[in-house]
Amino acid sequence: SAVNFPAPDLTLNDLSGESVSISDYNQQIVLINNWATWCPPCKAEMPTLSKYFKEHSQQGFMLIGIDAGDPVDEVASFVDEYELTFPILLDPNNKSLIAFHNENLPSSYVIDLTGNVVLAWTGPINQAMLEKYVTPLLEQ
Questions:
Q1: Is residue 21 part of a domain?
Q2: Within its chain, how far is the Cα of 131 from the centroid?
Q3: Alpha-carbon distance 19 to 123, whole Å?
């Protein structure tokens, strides 16, 4: 659904321990996806998200997966199993869920070029939703 609020600037570590901030990607349309390895709807939407990222990354689309508290080895196994190529950040203290005021998984937020969150979804995303709501942002 359409929303409008400033994106929280979260800084979390990736799987290699490097610190990554959401604001590092402020020249792109960013979709933040809060997920966990044990969450069935998260698993269900992951191939769709991954495919959309591969198809649209050249258009200035960035997908960032934020894992809610799983052990790093479980996250790494999940990334391998699903062949994920977008950044995955570890969130052991649920900073992202707290910052977005939404503890449900999966949940997704789209940040525009001005740094505002313009779309928010709770529950799994499908291809039609991405094409209807995210693709037009990439074509602006």
A1: no
A2: 16
A3: 27
Domain count, the chain: 1
Among the residues of the chain, which ranges form H helices? 40-56, 72-82, 95-99, 127-129, 135-138
Domain annotation covers residue 16: no
3-state secondary structure of 140: coil
Separation of alpha carbons 134 and 59, rounded Å: 11
Whether this prediction's pTM lies above 0.70 is answered by yes
Which tens digits make up the pLDDT trace of 107-117? 999 999 999 99
**Strands, E assignment, the chain:** 2-6, 11-14, 19-21, 29-35, 61-67, 88-90, 107-111, 116-122
Choose among 31, 35, 79: nearest CA to 59: 31
Structural domain contains residue 79: yes
What does the longest C-alpha to C-alpha distance in the chain come to?
A: 39
Residues in the chain: 140
